[in-house]
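agent> Task received from the user: take the single chain below, predict its 3D structure, and emit structure tokens. No templates, no multimer pairing.
agent> Plan: (1) validate residues, (2) run structure prediction, (3) serialize to tokens, (4) report one or two observations.
agent> Step 1 OK, no nonstandard residues flagged.
tool_call: predict_structure(input=
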Amino acid sequence: MTNKDNYNWMAGASWLLLDDDGNGTNPFNFSNYHSAVYPTRAFFDKYIYNGWSVEGSLSFQKYDNTKLVNDSLGIDGKLFAFDVHSKYSFYKFLGKSWIDPYIIAGGGISTRDLDSRNTAKAMSINANIGGGINFWVSYNVGIQLQSVAKFSLNDFMGPSNYMAHTAGFVLRIDNASGGESGEFSKSKYKIKKGRTKIKLPKGNKKNSES
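)
tool_result: status=success, residues=210
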């Protein structure tokens, strides 16, 4: 293993599957997910060192009043979220293959534009933990699946907690140098500086003197 950088930046967009039904014992109840037909989450990722990176994301979701929100039906409103995560990838342990699993932890802010029947806070500060996996279709393009549990610090283990599942596309951007990843300071070609002596055959030397 080496400490070479795998990439410089990642960026992408994904579909948000919002689980805000209030049932923490069943985080994968697909029938109660709030979603949209278009991507509602944008994210970027900056590689730091040795598998570590920082991820930032913005997401939005409109509540479907036919799905549960904290054990209640018929609730309208919207949810906005901004999150910053520290991320660790296990990519190099798998021989830099097409599978790229990772774990994340961090925090964020969630705001809800909601009606009075929703018992969640209008704004909450969250502590987040989760994980995901990238499937690289090519070196630069992949499909990302991710799940993050968000615990509100305003009412810990209360109705403001929720889960965000996402599925989307990710683009991996190499270093601008154009060389192999991690070779920021390595020059591909070296040019020796200084004078070089040119030796001529003896016959050519006499002709040049004449």
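agent> Step 4: summary for the user.
The chain has one helix and eight strands.
agent> Done.
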